[in-house]
Amino acid sequence: MSRNSESGYSSDENTISPQELIAQDQRRFAKSYDVEEEMMRSANGILYTGREISTGESVVIKQIPRGKISEFKQVQNRPVPSEIYYHFKAAQASDYVVAPLDWYERRSSFVLVMERLDGFVDLFEFSKKYGAINEEAVRIIAGQLVTCCMELSHAGICHRDIKDENILINPDTLEIRLIDFGCASREDNCFTTARGTPSYWPIEYFENRLLSAEPLTVWSIGAVIYILLTGNWETDETGQMRRNFLAERNLNSYTVSLLDRVFCPDPMMRITMKEILASGWC
C-alpha cells in the first residue's frame, strides 16, 4: 500500500495538510482513471466500471462514502478505511482475492480501484442461473474457497461476510475470487458482535451472542457449499438456517456427512478448514 512522493507519502509528509493530500489524490486519480458506468450499489458503496488511462485496461472502481465507514486503520500516518486496509492485506496473502490496484481519498468518500476480471460473475447470479450443480463442480469451487479462507486466517484476517454475493466465479473454468472486505477484521478467538449478513450467521450467535473466527468461517463456507449443492438456503423466523433434507436426498452420503460436520451446532466440535481439505472431499 506504499505510494510515491506525489501521493504525499514522502519523508516530509507531516508538513502536508490533510486537505492537500486529498487534493493530490484527486489530481492523481483524474490522471490515472476514467470512470465509465455505474455497475451496482452495495450496502457500503457504489461500484463503477472504469478504465486505466495509460493502458486502456478495464478496472472496477468502488466509491465508499465516509458515512458508511465504521473503522479506520493507520497507513503511513493516514487514516484508511479498514475495508481497503484488509483488502490489500488479503490480496498479499491469497491469489484467490480480487487484486486491489490503488486507493484515493476524497472529501466525502474513499475510492478503491480493483482489477476487472473478464468472464467472471458473482456466485449469486451464477446460482440463480444454474441452480443446484453437480458435486464434482462444487468440490472444485469449495476447495478454492477453503484454501483462500485458510490463507487469510494465516495472515490474521477474518472476512466475516463469506456468501455467494461476495464470490466471483468464471463459469467456464470454475475459478473463483473473493471480494468485499467491508466487514473484515483482525482474526480474534472470540467476537462479541456480528458483522455481515444475518442469514449466514452461525447458530451459536443466536444462542449466546458469541462467535469464534474459524467456526464462523466454516459455517459461512458451508452456506456457500449448500447453495451450490441444493440451490437452496432458508432461515426460520429466528434467523437460523433450515436444511432442506428433501434436496439432500440427491447428494452422496459422504457429502451429507460433511454437511453434518460443517453445521454442527457446537462450534467447538465443528469441522475445521484444515479437516475439510484433509477429508479429500474437495
Compact description:
This protein is α+β, with helices and mostly antiparallel strands. Helices cover 35% and strands 22% of the residues.
Describe the protein in words.
This protein is of the alpha+beta class and 282 residues long. It has two domains: 5-115, 2-Layer Sandwich (Phosphorylase Kinase, domain 1), CATH 3.30.200; 121-278, Transferase(Phosphotransferase) domain 1 (Transferase(Phosphotransferase), domain 1, Orthogonal Bundle). 35% of the residues lie in helices and 22% in strands. The protein contains nine helices and 14 strands. β1 and β2 (45-52) form a beta hairpin. α4 (135-154) runs antiparallel to α6. It is globular, with a radius of gyration of 20 Å. The model is unreliable at 4-13 (pLDDT under 50).
SSE blueprint and pairings:
Layout: H1 18-32, E1 33-42, E2 45-52, E3 58-65, E4 72-75, E5 78-81, H2 82-93, E6 100-105, E7 109-115, E8 121-122, H3 123-130, H4 135-154, E9 157-158, E10 167-169, E11 176-178, E12 185-186, H5 203-208, H6 213-230, E13 234-235, E14 241-242, H7 245-248, H8 253-262, H9 273-278
Antiparallel strand pairs: 1-2, 2-3, 3-7, 4-5, 6-7, 8-10, 9-12, 10-11, 13-14
Helix pairs in contact: 4-6
Search tags:
serine/threonine-protein kinase, Phosphorylase Kinase, domain 1, Serine/threonine-protein kinase 1, globular, Transferase(Phosphotransferase), domain 1, 9 helices, 14 strands, alpha+beta, 282 residues, 35% helix
